[in-house]
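Hey Z.,

So I finally got round to the pyridoxal-5'-phosphate thing we talked about over coffee. Here's the setup:
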Amino acid sequence: MDKLSRFLDERATNGLLRRLTPQEERHTPAHAVREGCAYVDFCSNDYLGLSAHPALVQAAIDALRRYGVGAGASRLMSGDLRIHHELEEATAAFKGTPRALVFNSGYQANLGLIAALADRHDVIFADQLCHASQLDGALLSRAKLIRYRHNDPGHLAELLAKHRAGFDRALILTETVFSMDGDLAPLAELVAVKEQYDGLLVVDEAHATGVFGPRGRGCVAAAGLTDRVEVIMGTFSKGLGGFGAYVAANATIIDYLINAARSFIYSTALPPAVIAANLAAIRLCQDGLDLGPALLATADRFRAALRAQGWATGGASQIIPLHIGDPHAAVALADRLREHHLLTLPIRPPTVPQGTARLRLSLSAAHTEAHLRQVLEALGHG
Ligand SMILES: *Cc1c(COP(=O)(O)O)cnc(C)c1O
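And the result:
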């Protein structure tokens, strides 16, 4: 117990203690109510505002009425419903791959898929900024884990040249849109390095799905590289407004995961209402909703306005980091913005490296120009 208290005290002293703060009401990122106060939410990953879209809500209601609440068992037991397969077929068509498999969350997808694809005879090369779920999957696999410098295919090639020969398989892990910096992976170069060294490229499109690429199909589709990336993982929980995740790949990989991915095998299937909402979101995208291009154009203009006001920012997506450095200063700035009814949770170590605390602003199609002006006015000159 002393050890736990010491951990908490140390976190508090360093400005790193996290707390839960519930919202009493929430429709889209444009409207959240917390402690009786209305806010515009810039922390949400509901990039297209789809979580409140009538088509998703209605699909969930219909599925609830038809199937009830819980799936009752794992997919390999009796929890496997026709609607899970419909979602997988629609997702494969959306991503342009032969097959797709639904996982219960992005975290569980990365954990299960990476641990299933690699073992102690293999080596995993992960971008230094890869998501915690990819790293946890790599640790669980017992493969040798080597980190390459963020978005640096040259460094990856050096490391492959040095270490590849001693191992059976080589997995290369990256996000396509990085969750904390909002920058994009150099996919064509990563594919070239992967092919030179006979590796398997496993990408995470959590923040790209719904936003990037033709009709929101993601960055791999945008780059025309679908046939050259072995495993494309992504989530329904962010841009698509629902919950859960998918892995899009060839039939062999998907059939293997059904038999070997422990987070898939040993967990109850997602509820039918969630699956139905995800399916409605994919159909909206396929039917040409296409909110991504306007959102990304807005993000570019917003970044330029921030720079004009003297703030250090970056990225090339709807995720906009404001680089602060000191975690206390990042917290103080978030507090100041909250007084202006703007939610922008500070991102601190260990989520990001020491000395790189930041405010992370997620823009959503649900935000208006007036909301963005509010942020610029509240920030003032940096
Ligand atoms: C959010 C996120 C996940 C986890 O997805 P959940 O569905 O929230 O569990 C995985 N990878 C990346 C890059 C993410 O940002």
